[in-house]
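ENTRY TYPE: paired fold submission
RECORD: A
CONTENT: sequence, then structure tokens
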Amino acid sequence: MLARKIFFPVMIMLSMAAVSCSTKKELLAEPVKDLNATWHIQNVTRNTVDITPYIDAADFKLTLSPDNTYTLEGNNIPFLVNNAAGTWSSDDPQYPYNITFKPADSTSSFSGSIATPVSKGQRTLSITFNPGCHSNTYIYTFEKSN
């Protein structure tokens, strides 16, 4: 009899607890990758070989502006575009996989694949491309300039 008196109240409390607990799945939205910045070269590889020590990239700066214009400074190395200015776009603001540059004095555009990993708490930008010769693949890894 005592077991019955305890059993029913316990069952009622467990039922109420189960009904009152609702799990809500929180959806985390992927943030938009802000590529608007002045970028300087951190690392350059050609065909998976690090060639950073052999190139003069100290003055190389790529500025991607919010109005989708770009400027290049100090470009004396192979890059996706060689023109100093033009427009740029990415294929998706949250999940960008490609970036396209269109020089101001050209009707052609040039695309490369990109990655936007975070390194040491800062967003980086990697651009992979073939500058005309398909047997050479370059990966430029950029950091934001301060």
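RECORD: B
CONTENT: sequence, then structure tokens
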Amino acid sequence: MASNKNSKAVNLAYRELKREVAKLAKDVIRGAEHHKLLASRLAEGAKNVGRTADNIASLNVDAATVAETRELAKTMQGLSQSATGYANRADTASQSAHAAEDEAILSHEGIQQAVDNTPVPMADRTWYTQE
């Protein structure tokens, strides 16, 4: 009876690990997608400001205003490039999170199967906890 109880406790811990790692992977992937969207919006905004600079230049608006608008477009383009780089790194992190999820399942599934199939009773789960 104690063996069955301990096996259930180990099984519960394994399911918790799977759930938490899967949740973390999803959160990181969602974050990477959000960063890509923001980078795309920044790039589009930079293009729009650049077009605005061209339009106001054609309307003979003073040179200082045109220059400031073009400078703003350049600054926004730089932000877009930085955001794109950040999004790419977030994408790499999301791939790593997905790989960690796969590894947790691969490595711990075998442990769970061994626990489930062992004829030896498991120790009380508090013995396995680390302080």
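NOTES ON RECORD B: The CA atoms of residues 21 and 100 lie 7 Å apart. Helices lie at 2-58, 63-117.
STATUS: closed
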